[in-house]
UniProtKB/TrEMBL annotation:
Domain HTH cro/C1-type residues, every copy: 40-85
Membrane-spanning parts: none
Top-level taxonomic group: Bacteria
Alphabetical list of InterPro entries matching this protein: Cro/C1-type_HTH, Lambda_DNA-bd_dom_sf, MLTR_LBD
Name by which UniProt lists this protein: Helix-turn-helix domain-containing protein
Taxonomic source organism: Lentzea sokolovensis
SMART domains membership: HTH_XRE (SM00530)
Length: 300
């Protein structure tokens, strides 16, 4: 992940993974009279459908050749890639589709801090590149964990999901949440292939957790987007919350994750109770005198 060769190798692995998920029937090819020993399309079938030579495609999968934008477009079409997967493919090839995104500093603007402060009935946190947690509000700390107690260099959402046992209790659908986190991390890895901290995180979690290792090798990618999460909270019980991702144009690497509940539902009532509890029990942080960046501290 730290060199052009590494990116080409990752691109080859991604192509192999997607090829293995497609049946001949899915792309309009006959299944054949004999069952295949290995599921998925053959290399020569992908090459033929993309109008390139089998040797060229083989070299792509082996990480020995770069691809042009036109070839990448054809492969994205043949392999039935989603929009997120297509973006990831181009990022790995060093040919971003659309406007290039520059990496931003892991700090938030005063306006964004104020936004989080003024969401009393919504849990909100800001994820930076590599899914580092760089800011949060009181309700997010009450809902998920006291982020301030995690050393700044370890304050990463994916690491928390896989290494903190409490997360497996907090999320009844832990496996779904964890898989989603891995797909998001894959997108960040393509955007920042030379980020040593991200590379170290992948090595750390691959070594420590078999699920992470398996899902990372699966090469599935997905943008953060929106969805629904279930929580089993020790204070207020069961909640079902909707989450949305907001992106600031001035800091495109920063994603504001906002969790809310439909008014009038038991989850909304529980979230309001938790917000009231957080107002009394979750300390507000003032200006830092300790040298810890203010942006890494919980928001009032």
């Amino acid at each position: 992940m730290n060199s052009d060769n590494g990116r080409l190798k990752d691109l080859g692995e991604f192509l192999r993974a997607r090829r293995g998920e497609l049946s001949p029937q899915a792309v309009g090819l006959p299944a054949g009279p004999v069952a295949r020993r290995v599921p998925g399309l053959r290399r020569e079938e992908v090459a033929r459908l993309a109008a390139i030579s089998t040797d060229y495609y083989r070299r792509l999968e082996q990480g020995r050749m770069a691809a042009s934008g036109a070839v990448l477009d054809e492969l994205a079409r043949v392999l039935r890639l989603t929009d997120d997967q297509r973006v990831y493919l181009f990022e790995l090839a060093g040919k971003p589709s659309g406007k290039a995104r520059a990496r931003s500093a892991q700090e938030i603007s005063p306006q964004l801090r104020r936004l989080l402060d003024q969401l009393p009935e919504a849990a909100a946190l800001v994820l930076g590149s590599g899914m580092d947690i760089i800011a949060w509000n009181r309700l997010a700390a009450a809902l998920i964990t006291d982020f301030a107690q995690i050393p700044e260099e370890r304050r990463n959402y994916v690491r928390m999901v896989f290494t903190d046992p409490a997360m497996r209790t907090l999320y009844p659908d832990w496996a779904d949440v964890a898989r989603k986190a891995v797909t998001n991390l894959h997108m960040d890895a393509a955007l920042h292939p030379d980020d040593p901290r991200l590379a170290e995180l992948v090595i750390e979690l691959s070594t420590q957790d078999a699920d992470f290792r398996e899902w990372w090798r699966g090469q599935h990618v997905e943008a953060k987007g929106q969805g629904t999460k279930r929580f089993h909270h020790p204070l207020v019980g069961e909640l079902t919350l909707d989450w949305d991702t907001l992106i600031c144009d001035t800091a495109p690497d920063q994603h504001v994750i906002v969790l809310t509940a439909q008014p009038g539902t038991p989850s909304h009532d529980a979230l309001r109770i938790l917000a009231s509890w957080a107002g009394e029990h979750v300390p507000a942080a003032g200006p830092s005198d300790s040298g810890t960046p203010v942006a890494a501290r919980p928001l009032r």
